[in-house]
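Hi X.,

You mentioned you wanted examples for the new student's onboarding notes, showing what a folding record looks like when two proteins sit in one file. Here is a clean example. The first protein comes first, with its sequence line followed by its structure tokens.
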Amino acid sequence: MKKWLTALMLILLMTLAASTALAIEAADITDECKFKVTSSKYKYTQMTDNKYTTYWKANKTKNPSIQVTSPDKDTLIGGIYVCFGNLPDSWEVQVSTDGKKWETAVQGPAFLHAWVPLPEPARYVRMQVTTGKQYELYLNEFFVLGVGDKPDWVQDWQPTVEKADIMFISTHPDDELIFFGGAIPTYATELKRDVVVAYYTRNNPTRSSELLNGLWYMGVRNYPIIGTASDKMSKTMAKAYEYAGGGNEKKGRKAVNEWIVGLYRQYKPEVVVTHDIDGEYGHSMHMMISDAAYNAIEIAANEDEYTDLTVAYGTWEVKKLYRHLWKENQIHFDWNVPLASMGGATSLELADSAFEIFHKTQETSGQSVLTTGLEYDNGAFGLVHTTVGLDVNGGDFLENIDLSGKPVETAPVMQELPYWSFLLPELNDRGFMDKGEFIHSSEEAGLWIFVDETTKIVIERKYDATQPLTWFEAEIWTDIEQGEMLRTIWNDDVKRTKIRVDAAETAKKHNIVFATNTDYFTYRVDVNASGRNTGVVIRNGELLHDDPYPESKAMNPNYMPNLDMVAFMEDGSLEVYRSHEITAKELLEKGAYDVYSFGPYLMKDGKLSQQAYDANETKNPRCALGMVEPGHYVYIMVEGRMEKTRSQGITMKELAKLMRAKGCENAINLDGGQTAVLIFMGQQLNKIGSYDGGKTNSRPTCEVMGVGYSEQVGTYELK
């Protein structure tokens, strides 16, 4: 009976998986659609430009709307993603068969960033405010998605949790990142606790989008509380209360207390975390929120205070309150611990990236998670109020809080298989075919696959419209025992560097399934007279150049590339070194058959390279090679310098994080820009941004790094 049930369960799981295996991520078709909007002095393109700092407003009118028509009858709309500046009381999404007669398809959710998938794809779609009153529709961004699965960058918010384990009260958007450090991703994302993040003021509509983008990036999925109070820097806390009360301090205290009491009673947090009572750097509104968060504890427990809130939610007693930097009963957190739920990124890295990437309005503030957060230690919090005793162990806001009645979400026992696995033919226990080869390609789905007796290659195209960013992730498995290895292939093994052609030509000439650029050492040879070192260059066990940087240059950020090395070893491993750490002779003795010099290396022994993390923040087209384990490799190609909707490029730090998310132990940055190409079956998959006055072709090279052999290379037609 037990075996029968197990078999049935497996069959059901396989059936469910197979039914979704061929699902394709919905494309962003916004720029292909036609828009008809309510009368406005603003151009509608201000809400379709991928910039949250611009916006579109309709003239104040009854039931304003935005009508969208797909490019043709074969390209239907699967859903819309609306990013409001101000949220209407009610709105809906309508569909039509002719663009004239409309019927309601979905009621719009009460979120400033709202994803609305349609029940059935449609060519004509309209978003309309339904308050029945004069209303000034205000949008930061508007995206139209085709048919398919929701992309990860589209925010599909879940309701605010009904009962909070922890509530974080932040005055402004970005305070929760700078001063609370990695607290939110640690508790909400990694520990799966029920977290409410509340903001007293958003200051302006743009900052609403910034805070939502930042939270989503850190893995938060429950919608935050976004207050609508005005913001003003005052000299004292009393003045801040006075401003909150419209010039009356007493009214201001009442208003702020009422707001926080409402939070406590409605969401019933066990623990509250908020600002420094001295306002961190002296911000009076931070002081005010810290003060009110403490005062509201007693008020929220008294049924005779704010009786309308008592009737609505009952009373509530907060068990613990922590203030940032409070010196008494202080606990400390290390936000540099990798989070398994976020691909090994630390919570501090997530907070830092959320601030740097999304809080564009604060670029000139002079503040950051890593500098301001270090000056005002975002890992230090003091226990101000407790009904459950003092902390003994430390390092946990929830110490002494009994959550035994609440089941903790745990990871599923069965590991989810990638959707493309159901496309594969039958494989042996080594993960390859016993005989023959299998090829799959889909430009629409952004998926390319090759499998034969010794090689398995899976390439996926990824897209994030919020950047925007387009990149390719290639995973490569090789049968090392059969001698299948990543290696360098010359276009002409006799003339070598004298012959330089497009990488695709070399791939086709030698029937290489997967091919890409190497370290472009020939450029450094060509300009050697300028003082640029070539680095250590080994090809097929032969030392071609032995010209590394000394430590003074290898560790100097002004020397880029710094000529870090990746060594291809006979056991299938990839090892990374600084230019000065090991000699060419030692590498050959260790069994290195190919050595590339470029850098910096991004990961070593599973840890991010500090040099990569500290690299400049310039966004460029980039590529990287990494090893998960011998026989399992990752290659990531990021496009850049492209049109506004395609890809702007990526920083070195973010490239390193992508490699870590793929599970790489060792990884190195290789030459990007117009050198970086990704070739599959003799055809280039990536696009190259404009350079040197408008060129978009790849740079000619004398060699490629490649793996896999097929007679169909150059003749197989990609679909």
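Then the second protein repeats the pattern, sequence line and then tokens:
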Amino acid sequence: MLLAYPWPALPAALVLTLLVSALGFIRTDYFVSLGYGFSIALLAVAFPLAYQPQLDLFTLAQSGLLLAYGLRLSSHLIARERQPSFARELEASKERSRHIKGGLKLVIWVSVAALYVAMYAPALISLSARADGADLSSLPWGLSVAALGLALEALADWQKTQFKKAYPQRFCDTGLFSMVRCPNYFGEMVFWLGIFVSGLSAYASLLDWALALAGLICIQLIMLGSARRLEFKQAERYGDDAEFRGYERRVPILLPLVPLYSLKNLKVYLG
């Protein structure tokens, strides 16, 4: 193998994510948007190539799902920026990040690059364990969950895109959005839970567990923060709409079938 785990694979992974997420120096929000998607995609190509002689169907499928995730997310973000209905949000995002300069940008850059390595860690650990001959019985189970999450997120993003083309000034409450207000965030949470589960039979050290858990916990907290932020944003935009207020009271915010309708008072989250 070209890159043994943990050394030099982890430093190499960090170098790759630092290079890609440096897009954030062009525009700050790229640290956590295009830098995120393209970092995951690059890792999902680079390390399977490094471990290519030891790849099997399931480790290849694991890498394929991560590659599909990263490319789909990045292409969706690029396409979304071209939509007239997103223009106001794009300007607001640029305004929010104007104060992020100098040392703070460096901290964000290194932090998100390290996070992307931790999120990818279950796949890297699985590749290394398979190369050592380990039986990775958790892979098919975790990949099934991850595939479901990816499908949910992709479908939710597509449904909202199509809805906004027809009704740019209205909140989306059709399709998956009739069951949960943030189905795309829910799908992302399910996807990364599946990636974590896929590596369970490969985790063999405290470092393995620390990396995998750090990645999982951080992305779940980020999704909670994203849903909370969207709740405030929608309340500001649609708060005077009686139909929207009824939708808020009727449809759970993040978890389908769980009667949780607001995250405004949430204290533990990221983002």
